[in-house]
Amino acid sequence: MELREGGLDHPAVIELLRFHVREANANTPVANAHALDIDALRHLAIRFWSAWDGDTLLGMAALKELEPGHGEVKSMRVHPDHLRRGVASALLGHIVATARGRGYTRLSLETGTAPAFAPANALYERAGFVDGPVFGGYPASEHNRFMTLVLQEQPA
């Protein structure tokens, strides 16, 4: 598996991203679905990676800087043909390592509560994420789950 930064213009990435947004909207009320589209992922505060096996897209993920020391996991999605092969763990591990390398003290994420989100929630829990406060201007609702991972203690 090779992780490549960028690639938002690649047709396979565009297709997977469209699938990701459709699935988020199909499993969460629109007011509570916060999957980013291609244009939003081009923001300067966001780094985007895709996972590949040769010419085959396996998955994608992004890291958004919310403020100095605080990042957000965005757009985590494994291609449906490549589930349960360690792709999501590799992508999340890369995001956590990148966040630590940037000196972040905390990494947060917003995900759904519908059954379709159970595998993602389990992945985040295995990685050490715990339920945390609402952040980033998201509205709190029964359809959203907010999780956080402390990367290093903040100086006193």
Description of the molecule:
The chain is 29% helix and 31% strand. The chain contains 4 helices and 7 strands; from the N terminus they run βααβββαβαββ. It has helices at 11-27, 38-41, 87-101, 118-126; strands at 2-5, 46-53, 56-67, 70-78, 106-112, 130-131, 144-150. It is globular, with a radius of gyration of 15 Å. It starts with a strand and ends in a 6-residue tail after the last strand.
Structural class category: alpha+beta
In percent terms, what proportion of residues is strand? 25-35%
What's the average pLDDT?
A: 93
Uncertain runs: none
Largest beta-sheet characterization: 7 strands, mixed
Task: Specify the number of helices.
Answer: 4
Please give the order of strands in the largest beta sheet.
Answer: 1-2-3-4-5-7-6
Which overall shape is indicated by the principal axes computed on the Cα atoms? Answer: globular
Question: How far is it from the N-terminal to the C-terminal residue, by CA?
Answer: 40 Å
The portion of residues assigned to helices is 25-40%
Following the backbone from N to C, one meets helices and strands in this order, namely EHHEEEHEHEE
Quick recap:
By secondary structure, this protein is an alpha+beta fold. Helix content is 29%, strand content 31%. The chain has helices at 11-27, 38-41, 87-101, 118-126, and strands at 2-5, 46-53, 56-67, 70-78, 106-112, 130-131, 144-150.
